[in-house]
């Protein structure tokens, strides 16, 4: 189909010497988990606009529309349909995400992020890393207190999965059991709390000094 240019002269239309072909674009690019709406158009001519939307359960990131350019190609597609972000939110400074720009993920209270907090849009309309997820935060009961000793972080009241504490004894006592325990993903501590005990025999003297928590005979045997 050709568009005929005309010249108005004395209210009489004269055809120009040249005819210009109408510019068409190919079918719009597809977006995974989404679709586009072109208002029933069968041909996509220069200047025509199509709008994208996402399937249920997905949210649109980027610009929702593209248009057919005068060179017969679509302008750059930035629309991405991402799974609805459960138990969190996506933060970004602009509604449109262009290549090299990033979006940041945050989780709701009581949830922690697994994956990268920030992902970057690539020039091929993909992301540089998988979308992170928000999982429920696992907590352990405060570590058990021990007689004649203490543990690190005793000032805290909340202990989440992955946190660890170290137990130490007061002078004159030695530790039996694991000094370091950590909060597991199941909400329990990796091992039971250790104990602080006293030596049953008199403390020997080493080079003129006493070592209440580390007697000389034990130091000698460890060599």
UniProtKB/TrEMBL annotation:
<feature type="disulfide bond">
    <location>
        <begin position="54"/>
        <end position="81"/>
    </location>
</feature>
<feature type="domain" description="Sushi">
    <location>
        <begin position="23"/>
        <end position="83"/>
    </location>
</feature>
<keyword id="KW-0732">Signal</keyword>
<dbReference type="InterPro" id="IPR000436">
    <property type="entry name" value="Sushi_SCR_CCP_dom"/>
</dbReference>
<keyword id="KW-0768">Sushi</keyword>
<feature type="domain" description="Sushi">
    <location>
        <begin position="138"/>
        <end position="198"/>
    </location>
</feature>
<feature type="domain" description="Sushi">
    <location>
        <begin position="101"/>
        <end position="136"/>
    </location>
</feature>
<protein>
    <recommendedName>
        <fullName>Sushi domain-containing protein</fullName>
    </recommendedName>
</protein>
<dbReference type="Pfam" id="PF00084">
    <property type="entry name" value="Sushi"/>
</dbReference>
<dbReference type="InterPro" id="IPR051277">
    <property type="entry name" value="SEZ6_CSMD_C4BPB_Regulators"/>
</dbReference>
<keyword id="KW-0677">Repeat</keyword>
<dbReference type="InterPro" id="IPR035976">
    <property type="entry name" value="Sushi/SCR/CCP_sf"/>
</dbReference>
<keyword id="KW-1015">Disulfide bond</keyword>
<feature type="disulfide bond">
    <location>
        <begin position="25"/>
        <end position="68"/>
    </location>
</feature>
<feature type="disulfide bond">
    <location>
        <begin position="107"/>
        <end position="134"/>
    </location>
</feature>
<feature type="disulfide bond">
    <location>
        <begin position="169"/>
        <end position="196"/>
    </location>
</feature>
<feature type="disulfide bond">
    <location>
        <begin position="140"/>
        <end position="183"/>
    </location>
</feature>
